[in-house]
Amino acid sequence: MPDNDNEGKLMMVEFAIFFSIRDMHPTELQLIQLARQVGGMAQQAAGAYQQAQSALRLERLFMLESVATEEGTREALDTVARLAELHQVHQQMFARFVPAAMKQITEAIAALPADKAREYEQGLIPSVNRTLTEQAEFYANRDRWINAVREMFTIVEKNRDVISVHDGQLMFHDDDVIDRYEAARQVMNDIHAYELAHVQEKMARAAASSAYLAALERGAKL
Question: Which of 57, 70, 158, 180 has its CA 20 to 30 A from that of 207?
Fold first, then answer.
């Protein structure tokens, strides 16, 4: 699946478009710095997720050996279980991170003059919520992906008597079994395609983020 390394930078993009160096209130610099910190923390979390996921060598799940033998299928299900555990840990970390970050942002906005506070409440907060919604969507999609892969291998494990391998191809000899297997695989493929369709947009927005916020921070300090 496409990685999530750019989610932190994406968050900074959403923050950045609402900042202006002109007539900047001192607390606005704090908001810029907070946005960079929040984005950086999100990047670190995403990087840790990807590093841990890479160690699982998920590519092996899609080798013929994973379905051709009982041992291969057991190993595949074990890998999926470890991925699910990893995912749950990071999802819980995100759930703890969100209220803490929002509290800091809300407190910083509250320290602004009323007119500027309204500007950030109308621009920044909806943007933050959008970013957090996208991150929550990532976790929800990853949950569905994990469940679909688990379902595929569970079907193979429980129906090996109607499954065989010929010329490097997995063959099903029961229509109900193949229908359930293909349905699970379609869910997995749909999620993968959805993430691929959005990854370039996220990368482009992420690339603009760090540079823009850094420029704003430098300008605010002049």
Answer: 57
User: With 0-12 CB in 10 A as exposed, 13-18 as middle and 19+ as buried, what is 139?
Assistant: middle
Q: Which residues contact 84 (CB under 8 A, 6 or more apart)?
A: 146, 150
Query: How far is the C-alpha of 149 from the C-alpha of 166, rounded, in Å?
Result: 22
pLDDT at residue 185 is higher than 80: yes
Q: Mean of the pLDDT values across residues 19-28?
A: 63
Structure tokens at 55: 């160690």
The burial of 46, by beta-carbon neighbours within 10 Å (0-12 exposed, 13-18 middle, 19 or more buried), is given as buried
Residue 26: count other Cβ atoms within 10 Å of its Cβ: 9
Torsion, Cα of 26, 30, 35, 36 (10° steps):
110
- In sequence order, the 6+-apart residues with CB closer than 8 A to the CB of 184 are 148, 149, 151, 152, 155
What digits encode the pLDDT tens for the residues 137-147? Answer: 888 999 999 99
